[in-house]
Design a protein that fits this description.
Layout lengths: L5 H18 L12 E9 L5 E11 H4 L8 E2 L3 E2 L12 E8 L2 E3 L4 E5 L2 E5 L26 E9 L2 E9 L5 E8 L5 E4 L2 E4 L5 E3 L5 E3 L2
């Protein structure tokens, strides 16, 4: 039986990897890091699912997103391993820019993405407009179809807005710590978002990776 020439196999593997890189093969999942803070441009698919068009790394989630990567995220984003309180919730802070889909003024909530609702944090004075010159909006200011940017925290299955302003651009964007990363999707602020080899990914060293 002829012995396997491992050197040839390794050489061919290296050549294949180099060719695949030149051709623009999909980035490995390891490029996206659990707990890192990212800004993502989204599109809403026909089935109301979300897909990432562009992903840009913004910094360390431990500093910016209040993400505890010592906890295992299970169920409704609860840390349930030995390093976490079983009853504690994973706190995720970030921003979402999107179009208002529906409003329930009596409950103080509105729909920002399909099936994704935002509630005003009544304990935060920033959600109340002090005068006409203040850029912060209240539930009474919102209209269906309006593009807004909300800043706050995803907790207990809902996004609690500390601040609502008119969005600068008519683009769907989300910024926050990324978790539950697989080769085809990831989670941010309670949302599951898909991505593929056409998603443009930009990491900290400012090298753009455009996967065709």
């Amino acid at each position: 039986m002829k012995a396997i020439n491992w050197k040839s196999i390794v050489f061919l593997a290296l050549v294949f990897c180099l060719f695949a890189t030149i051709q623009g093969c999909p980035l490995p999942t390891s490029v996206l890091v659990e707990g890192e803070f990212y800004e993502v441009e989204l599109q809403i698919n026909a089935d109301s699912s979300l897909h990432a068009l562009e992903i840009e790394q913004e910094g360390d989630g431990d500093d910016d997103g209040d993400y505890d990567d010592d906890c295992e995220q299970e169920g409704e984003h609860e840390g349930e391993d030995e390093d976490c309180d079983e009853e504690s919730d994973l706190e995720l802070e970030g921003e979402i820019s999107a179009q208002v889909l529906s409003i329930d003024a009596s409950r103080g909530i509105f729909e920002l993405l399909p099936g994704y609702f935002v509630i005003l944090d009544d304990d935060d004075d920033e959600t109340e407009r002090v005068d006409d010159d203040d850029d912060h909006l209240t539930i009474a200011d919102l209209e269906v179809g309006m593009w807004v940017e909300v800043e706050g925290e995803y907790e207990n299955g809902m996004f609690e807005a500390e601040e609502i302003e008119l969005a600068d651009e008519s683009e769907i964007e989300i910024a926050g710590a990324m978790y539950r990363i697989t080769s085809s999707n990831f989670s941010m602020l309670g949302l599951t978002i898909s991505y593929d080899d056409a998603t443009e990914i930009e990491i900290d060293d400012d090298d753009d990776h455009d996967d065709d």
